[in-house]
Structures are given as structure tokens and as C-alpha cells.
Amino acid sequence: MLLKGTIIKGIGGFYYVDTNEGIIECRARGKFRKNEILPMVGDKVEIEVSATSSGSVKKIEERANFLIRPAVSNIDKLMIVAAITNPAPDTSLIDKMLIIAAKKGIKGSLCINKSDLDTSNEAEKLKDCYEKAGYRVFVTSAEKGIGLEELRHELSGKITAFAGLSGVGKSSILTLITGKELETGDTSRIERGKHTTRHVELIKTDDGYVFDTPGFSQLEVEDIKASELWEYFPEMAECNGLCRFRGCSHVSEPDCAVKSALEKGDIPQSRYESYVKMYEKLKLIKDWERGNTNGTR
Ligand SMILES: Nc1nc2c(ncn2[C@@H]2O[C@H](COP(=O)(O)OP(=O)(O)O)[C@@H](O)[C@H]2O)c(=O)[nH]1
Ligand SMILES: [Mg+2]
Ligand SMILES: [Zn+2]
User: Fold this and answer.
1) Which helix (H) or strand (E) holds 296?
2) How far is the CA of 248 from the centre of ligand 3 (A)?
3) What CATH topology corresponds to 2-62?
4) What CATH superfamily is the domain 226-289?
5) For ligand 1, which residues put their CB under 6 angstroms from it?
6) What are the tens digits of pLDDT across the range 222-267?
7) Which pTM value belongs to this model?
């Protein structure tokens, strides 16, 4: 019998494929190994199931995208989780993660957690900043159970990666949404040094999957050209063609549409600062150093 499904876990040469008939343990057919196409978590596959109900992977659908660490393919959405406090929101990190996602063709959204600790309307300000840029923003409190229904709804039918600093509440949120108990708590104790060895597993939510991406915040945007960076900031991309100089870097040129938008408040200060910071960094990378996106550099 042939079945279609999604690989949700891989351990010791076995793949666990979620199908209409439940989760089926499979081995990859020899051919994939010879071609060095190893099945990975997230792959949409066709499997053949024998009478004894163990299966083998017959076909891997072309991947829309993939991450190396953790190794997961076909990610539809990156949910960046930030906290109101403890740890405080790091907008330059949020912006960097949004750009890494966009570069991989993954839609980014923001979840502002610990809203129960919000004493100065911080959540509203952040929400406004990122909604202006065109991102969806969810304000939640895992502690008080606020905003979780909306968030869960957003995950439906997709593979969603959760990313963000340790301690922002990713595990707490995922535990509440999936009903599967995940390790939470004092992250300085729990997560340190752990993310290279941990097996990634897609966890089912309604008709979608979620997973945590420890270490995602350490990825860099180095395979983007400095001159193209602004295109990854949707609110800056709107200024396309409006600057006095073609090829304007939006940093030091006169009559720059981006800088006028910044002065008018149409581009938030923190977003512009993130841009300049990344721009200066990317400018130092030579073209020949770029383009290696397989993580082996
Ligand atoms: N006040 C408050 N604390 C929270 C909230 N969500 C998580 N926490 C706490 O923050 C700490 C880190 O949470 P955890 O889910 O482990 O974060 P992770 O490192 O992102 O997975 C834990 O002590 C949680 O109880 C929230 O919405 N409000
Ligand atoms: Mg965690
Ligand atoms: Zn400009």
C-alpha cells in the first residue's frame, strides 16, 4: 500500500512518517543514500507499507526550503517569539531573524509573550512597529493563557518553526498549544550547550506541525548582498525608486526617500538602526565569500 505523509522524526536510520493511517516507522530505500539525498524531518514523502505495517520511503518531494540546524525542510512560517521582559526584546535580533527567514522563502511573524508583565504598553509599541512593516503580530501570555487561540489558529495547516532567545517562553507556549509537555523553566540551566545533540521532532497541532529551533538566533545573514539588504525590509522596499541616487544605500546619501520616511515616522527608528547595523556588516563580506548557504563554511 502506498501512502503520503510528512517525516516528523528521524532516529538511527528510521523515519517516522505521519500519514492518514497514523505514524508509520520507515526505512529509507537504498537509492536515496547512494544519491546522498537523505530524507529529513519535514520532507513530504511517499511510502510503501507492507503487511507487517513497517514502511519504506519511496519518494521525497522537492523541498521548498530547509534549515541545517535543526535539519528540517518545508518550513512555511517562522514564529519569532520575544518577551516583554526577562529577557527584554532585542529588535535587532528580531529583524535579523526576519531577514534570514525571508531569504529562505519562509514567512516571518512575531509573537510577543509575557504580556502579563507589560507595565508600559511595550507590547502595543512593538506590535505597531512590526505591523507597519507588514508582519503579523501576536501578543500572548503563556502564564495567563492570553492570545493562544489566535496563535494556534495561525499554525493551522503549516509547518511552523519557533525561534527566539532562551527564556522568552517558546516551550511554555508550545506545551499549551500542542498539549505535549516540553521542558520549560530556568533556561540558563536547561538549554546551555544542548542544541547540537537534540533530535528535532515535529509536533502536531490540529492540522499543522510546530518545532523549536534552538540556536536559530545565532544564524547570520551573510549570504545577502549589502546592496540588496533594504529589499528585505518591507517598509523600506516601498521607497524603491524614490531616492535621488540609483543604488542609494540609504545610509549617507542626500535626498534619500528612506531617510525622509524615517523622519516622518513611517519607518521606525529601531528598524532603520537594524538595517544600518546589518548593512555595515554585510559590506565587509566579499562577493566570493557569499553564496555558501549549506552551512559548511
Ligand atoms: N510571566 C510570564 N512568565 C512566562 C510566560 N511564558 C513563560 N514564562 C516563564 O519564562 C520562563 C522560560 O520559559 P520557557 O518556556 O522555558 O522559555 P524558552 O526558553 O523560550 O523555551 C519559565 O520560567 C516560564 O514559566 C508568560 O507569558 N509570562
Ligand atoms: Mg525551551
Ligand atoms: Zn535612499
Assistant:
1) none
2) 5
3) OB fold (Dihydrolipoamide Acetyltransferase, E2P) (2.40.50)
4) Probable gtpase engc; domain 3 (1.10.40.50)
5) 113-114, 116-117, 141-143, 164, 166-172, 184-185, 187
6) 889 999 999 999 999 999 999 999 999 999 999 999 999 999 999 9
7) 0.91
